[in-house]
Fold this sequence. Notes:
Elements: E1 29-33, H1 74-81, H2 91-94, H3 104-107, H4 132-150, H5 153-161, E2 164-168, H6 171-178, H7 186-189, H8 192-212, E3 217-221, H9 230-236, H10 245-268, E4 273-277, E5 294-298, E6 321-323, H11 331-342, E7 350-351, H12 355-360
Parallel strand pairs: 1-2, 2-3, 3-4, 5-6
Antiparallel strand pairs: 4-7
Amino acid sequence: xxxxxxxxxxxxxxxxxxxxxxxxxxxxxxxxxxxxxxxxxxxxxxxxxxxxxxxxxxxxxxxxxxxxxxxxxxxxxxxxxxxxxxxxxxxxxxxxxxxxxxxxxxxxxxxxxxxxxxxxxxxxxxxxxxxxxxxxxxxxxxxxxxxxxxxxxxxxxxxxxxxxxxxxxxxxxxxxxxxxxxxxxxxxxxxxxxxxxxxxxxxxxxxxxxxxxxxxxxxxxxxxxxxxxxxxxxxxxxxxxxxxxxxxxxxxxxxxxxxxxxxxxxxxxxxxxxxxxxxxxxxxxxxxxxxxxxxxxxxxxxxxxxxxxxxxxxxxxxxxxxxxxxxxxxxxxxxxxxxxxxxxxxxxxxxxxxxxxxxxxxxxxx
Length: 366
């Protein structure tokens, strides 16, 4: 089973322009996160959190790739918007490249892992995954390879200073940890307030490690309305509400900590710039304006753990569904989020500015 979904943009996008990139805007693009952005790192793991089978990838060129979607994910669309010729490869394939052969790792790597969280233990009841700490360690290995390719650590750092670092993780720490008291002790050890502080403190340490290894342009994506995920509503019930309010409240609490983290690190790390992406706020509005008709159910028939049943035929009207399975957005949903991440539709979509502006930022002239 995969990570919880940062729901799609549900505010009207009819006036939003399509953003067509002209040339590659940054030297590289590095992705950290969970199943919302995983593109194949879990394919060889002993885990239920895998998407390397049909109907996953039914609309993706080449079929199932490990993406928890019918097609593209948010980070794939952003790669197009940033002007990359291809999608960013997963670490499991990119890590095996000869440091002297080609320059693909210079273009970026996707380290994300389905069911993973900020905390090491998160999601482990589903099997193996690659938590944020290990994803950061994998990037340290990438740094060493780039240093070998570029002729030293200084050259590697200079290259990475201009790259986009996209971080989308934290949903599973609630849905596949805190709110599963039979599998995890965190809800007994921490109040929601103390748990969100614990998560943010751990997250902060990982970001500072990335900064030490060259990261300067960092996008931190907030947790979406995880209390509105179909699987969660089926498990816990909504008691007459549209969503599970206490789960959404926990997400909001954590997002406040993330926003504070971004502000604090922007003050502390004078040579870097972090932005906060408000995925929770992008869920507001009327989904029917975007053409969505099915809001609380997934397009594919789902297993008890919320993922698609292998080999089952999904719905044909996929663009009318917010959710692909019982956790993750359809490609249409991912595109809506990507558009507002790359260029804000509303001032509240990102802070202090959007991803397009971050990409264009001359980090040495702040």
